[in-house]
Automatic annotation (TrEMBL), chain A:
Gene name tied to this protein: leuD
Record InterPro entries: Aconitase/3IPM_dehydase_swvl, AconitaseA/IPMdHydase_ssu_swvl, IPMI_Swivel, LeuD, LeuD/DmdB_bac, LeuD_type2/HacB/DmdB
EC number: 4.2.1.33
Keyword field contains Ligase: no
Enzyme class per UniProt: lyase
Protein name: 3-isopropylmalate dehydratase small subunit
Species assigned in the record: Halanaerobium congolense
Function of the molecule: Catalyzes the isomerization between 2-isopropylmalate and 3-isopropylmalate, via the formation of 2-isopropylmaleate.
Entry's transmembrane regions: none
Catalytic function, reaction form: (2R,3S)-3-isopropylmalate = (2S)-2-isopropylmalate
Family label: Belongs to the LeuD family. LeuD type 2 subfamily.
GO biological process entries: L-leucine biosynthetic process
Pathway, per record: Amino-acid biosynthesis; L-leucine biosynthesis; L-leucine from 3-methyl-2-oxobutanoate: step 2/4
UniProtKB/TrEMBL annotation, chain B:
HAMAP family (alphabetical): LeuC_type2
Cofactor binding: number and manner: Binds 1 [4Fe-4S] cluster per subunit.
Protein function: Catalyzes the isomerization between 2-isopropylmalate and 3-isopropylmalate, via the formation of 2-isopropylmaleate.
Gene3D superfamilies, per the entry: Aconitase, domain 3 (3.30.499.10)
InterPro entries: Acnase/IPM_dHydase_lsu_aba_1/3 (IPR015931), Acoase/IPM_deHydtase_lsu_aba (IPR001030), Aconitase_4Fe-4S_BS (IPR018136), Aconitase_4Fe-4S_dom (IPR036008), HAcnase/IPMdehydase_lsu_prok (IPR011826), Homoacnase/IPMdehydase_lsu (IPR006251), IPM_dehydratase_rel_enz (IPR050067), IPMI_cat (IPR033941)
A single BP term in Gene Ontology: L-leucine biosynthetic process
Protein name: 3-isopropylmalate dehydratase large subunit
Named cofactor requirement(s): [4Fe-4S] cluster
Pathway(s) the chain acts in: Amino-acid biosynthesis; L-leucine biosynthesis; L-leucine from 3-methyl-2-oxobutanoate: step 2/4
Substrates-to-products reaction catalysed: (2R,3S)-3-isopropylmalate = (2S)-2-isopropylmalate
Domain of life: Bacteria
Domain Aconitase/3-isopropylmalate dehydratase large subunit alpha/beta/alpha: 7-288
C-alpha cells in the first residue's frame, strides 16, 4: 500500500509527554486524544493536519512514557505514518500493535523538510520525497512483526491464535 | 557460548537452551501490570479478544496510582473501569486507595516481582524490577491486554551493555546520582533497544532501595531493562515477602556484551539533570549560577522509598523550607508511609514546613497534587524533566536525589547538602 502526505517535521527525542500531555490522559477516547496531539510542541498541529499527512521525527521518536495514547492520538489525528531516524522501543511496539505504520529511515528523516510531500510504500519500505525526487529504503520489519501488521494489529493476531 | 542475564531469562521463559540478540521469542510472563491510565485501554482491547477469562488471576496486578485518589470525574471513570474489571475477573492483586502505593514501589514490597522472572507492565518504569534480578520491561496497553489473555508476550532479544561501577561513593551520593551520571554519559538513547547490566562493587554496596532507583531509570537511557544480579541483599529483602518460589539468574562468565563501560564512582558528585532531558546532567560542583526554585518534590517510583525519605529528613532536621518554595513529600506506599511516620520523619518534614501526601504518581507526570504554573521551576526526585512534564510548557523540572531536593527546598535555589549545615 502506498501512502502520500504532507510532512510535519520535528527534531530528536520527541517524547510521549509532548505527543499527548498527561493532563489529557483522564480520557482514553481516541478522538479526544487526537484533538490535543503534539499540542505542547506544535500548538497548531491538530488544526493543520489533514488525513494522510506524515510525521517525520529525528532520533528516539516516542521516548518516555509507555502511554499507548501517543500512537493512538497520532493515528486518530489522521496521520498515515511516522518516519523517523529511530524510535523509542515502547512506542515502536505500541505502533505495530495498534496498526500505525512507522518507518525507521535516518536518511529520509534527515532530508525531509516541513511541508514536503512524501510517498511511502509500507509494503517494501520505500520512501520517496516528491520535492527532491530522492528515494530511500527504510529498515524492513522482521517477519514476525510483518505478520502482526498483516493481521491488523496484535489483538487480531492473538485472536487468530486463540480461536 | 555464555549468555547475559536477559538472554538467560528469555531463554528459560521460551523453553530454549540458548537465545541470541536479534531473535524474536514468544515468552511466558510471570506478572502483568497496569495502572489507571493504561489499564482502561487494555481492558477495552482485552474485551475485543473474546476470551472470557484472564490467563491467571493471581499474576495480574492493577494499581490505580497515577490520577488516584481520583483527581476529577474523568479520572474516577477510568479507575472505575479498572475496578470493575478486577471485580469481574476476581483479580487477586488489585490495590485500592488505602492499600495501594506507587506501582513500582508497591509490587517489590509485596513480593510480586522476583529474581529470574519476566514482568511486563503498561508503564515505562516497569524496568524497576531489574533491581531484583528480574526482566521488568514497559509495554503498551495492547501488549498488556494480549498478555492478560495469553500469559505471553513477544520480545526481541536485545544486546546487553555491561556497566561496571567501582570505588566508593562520596557522602550524599546515592543510586540516583549514579543513574543520572550514567544517563548523562550515554545519552537518552544510549541504550535504545538494548538491556543494561549494572554491576561492580559500588552496586554490591548499594541498598535495595538504591538499586531500584537505578533500574527504574534504565528507560531514561532508552533501555529495555536495567538488570542487577540478585545477591544476599536481594534474598534478605525477599525473605518475608516473596509470594512464589524463584530462581536466581546470574550472567555467565563468558557472556557476550555489546559494550562494557567502567565508571569510577569515587569521582561522582551529586548530580542534577537540567531541563528538558534526563541526559542534561551536571555535578553540583559544575553549577555556577544560582537557580531559584518554586517547588521541591520528594517521592515517586524513583525515590519514594524509606531510605529516600530518611535522606531527605536528615537534611530537613532543624531546618525550614524556604518561604518561596512549596515542598511536597510523597511516600511510595502505605507501608512506607507508616514506617516513616513511626520513625518520626513526618515530624521533621512538617516542622520544616513540607507537606506530606498519600502515595500517588500525581505531580511527577503533571497529573495533580503539585502542578507548575508558567515559568515556575521545580527540583524533583522523579525521573523525567521533559517539556511540560509537571505542568505548564514554560515551567522547568530539574532532577536530583532526595538529599539535593531537600537542601534546595531549604535554600530556595538548587543547592547541595553541604550548603545547609
Amino acid at each position: 500500500m502506498k501512502l502520500k502526505g504532507k510532512v510535519f517535521k520535528y527534531g530528536d527525542n520527541v517524547d510521549t509527554d509532548v505527543i499527548i500531555p498527561a493532563r489529557y490522559l483522564n480520557s482514553s477516547t481516541p478522538e479526544n486524544l487526537a484533538a490535543h496531539c503534539m499540542e505542547d510542541i506544535d500548538k497548531n498541529f491538530a488544526d493543520e493536519v489533514s488525513e494522510g499527512d506524515i510525521i517525520v521525527g529525528g532520533k528516539n521518536f516516542g521516548s518516555g512514557s509507555s502511554r499507548e495514547h501517543a500512537p493512538l492520538a497520532i493515528k486518530y489525528a489522521g496521520v498515515s505514518c511516522v518516519v523517523a531516524e529511530s524510535f523509542a522501543r515502547i512506542f515502536y511496539r505500541n505502533s505495530i500493535n495498534i496498526g500505525l505504520p512507522i518507518l525507521e529511515c535516518p536518511e529520509a528523516a534527515k532530508a525531509a523538510e516541513a511541508g514536503d510531500e512524501l510517498e511511502v510504500d509500507i509494503d517494501n519500505g520505500e520512501i520517496k520525497n516528491m520535492r527532491t525526487g530522492e528515494s530511500y529504503q527504510a529498515v524492513p520489519f522482521p517477519p514476525f512483526m510483518q505478520e502482526i501488521i498483516k493481521d491488523g494489529g496484535l489483538i487480531e493476531h492473538v485472536k487468530k491464535e486463540l480461536v | 557460548m555464555g549468555m547475559t542475564m536477559i538472554e538467560k531469562i528469555l531463554a528459560a521463559h521460551s523453553d530454549q537452551d540458548q537465545v541470541k540478540p536479534g531473535e524474536i521469542v514468544n515468552a511466558r510472563v510471570d506478572m502483568v501490570l497496569g495502572n489507571d491510565i493504561t489499564a482502561p485501554v487494555a481492558v477495552k482491547e482485552f474485551n475485543k479478544i473474546g476470551v472470557d477469562r484472564v490467563f491467571d488471576k493471581e499474576r495480574i496486578a492493577l494499581v490505580p496510582d497515577h490520577f488516584a485518589p481520583n483527581k476529577d470525574i474523568k479520572a474516577a471513570e477510568q479507575v472505575k473501569v479498572v475496578r470493575e474489571f478486577a471485580q469481574k475477573h476476581d483479580i487477586t492483586n488489585y490495590f485500592e486507595v488505602g492499600q495501594m502505593g506507587i506501582e513500582h514501589v508497591l509490587l517489590p514490597e509485596k513480593g510480586l516481582t522476583l529474581p529470574g522472572e519476566i514482568i511486563i507492565g503498561a508503564d515505562s518504569h516497569t524496568c524497576t524490577y531489574g533491581a531484583l534480578g528480574a526482566l521488568g520491561t514497559g509495554v503498551g496497553s495492547t501488549d498488556m491486554a494480549a498478555a492478560m489473555a495469553t500469559g505471553k508476550a513477544w520480545f526481541k532479544v536485545p544486546p546487553t551493555i555491561k556497566i561496571v561501577y567501582s570505588g566508593e561513593l562520596k557522602p550524599h551520593v546515592s543510586g540516583k546520582d549514579l543513574i543520572l551520571y550514567t544517563i548523562g554519559k550515554i545519552g537518552v538513547d544510549g541504550a535504545l533497544y538494548k538491556a543494561m547490566e549494572f554491576t561492580g562493587e559500588a552496586i554490591e554496596n548499594l541498598s535495595m532501595d538504591g538499586r531500584m532507583t537505578m533500574s527504574n531509570m534504565a528507560i531514561e537511557a532508552g533501555g529495555k531493562a536495567g538488570l542487577i544480579a540478585a545477591d544476599e541483599k536481594t534474598e534478605s529483602y525477599l525473605e518475608d515477602r516473596a509470594q512464589r518460589e524463584y530462581t536466581i539468574v546470574k550472567p555467565d562468565s563468558d557472556a557476550e556484551y555489546e559494550q562494557v563501560i567502567e565508571i569510577d564512582v569515587s569521582q561522582i558528585e551529586p548530580q542534577v539533570a537540567f531541563p528538558s532531558l534526563p541526559e542534561n546532567t551536571k555535578g553540583l560542583n559544575e553549577i555556577t549560577e544560582k537557580i531559584e526554585i518554586h517547588q521541591s518534590v520528594i517521592g515517586s517510583c524513583t525515590n519514594g522509598r524509606i531510605e529516600d525519605l530518611r535522606a531527605a529528613a536528615e537534611i530537613f532536621k532543624g531546618q525550614k523550607v524556604h518561604k518561596n518554595v512549596r515542598c511536597l513529600v510523597f511516600p511510595g506506599t502505605q507501608a512506607i508511609y507508616k514506617q516513616a511516620m513511626h520513625e518520626g520523619l513526618f515530624d521533621i518534614f512538617i516542622d520544616a514546613g513540607a507537606a506530606v501526601s498519600t502515595p500517588t504518581c500525581g505531580p511527577c507526570l503533571g497529573g495533580h497534587m503539585g502542578i507548575l504554573a508558567d515559568g515556575e521551576r521545580a527540583i524533583s526526585t522523579t525521573n523525567r524533566n521533559f517539556v511540560g512534564r509537571m505542568g505548564s510548557t514554560s515551567s522547568e523540572v530539574y532532577l536530583a536525589s532526595p538529599a539535593v531536593a531537600a537542601a534546595s527546598a531549604i535554600k530556595g535555589h538548587i543547592a547541595g547538602p553541604e550548603e545547609v549545615k
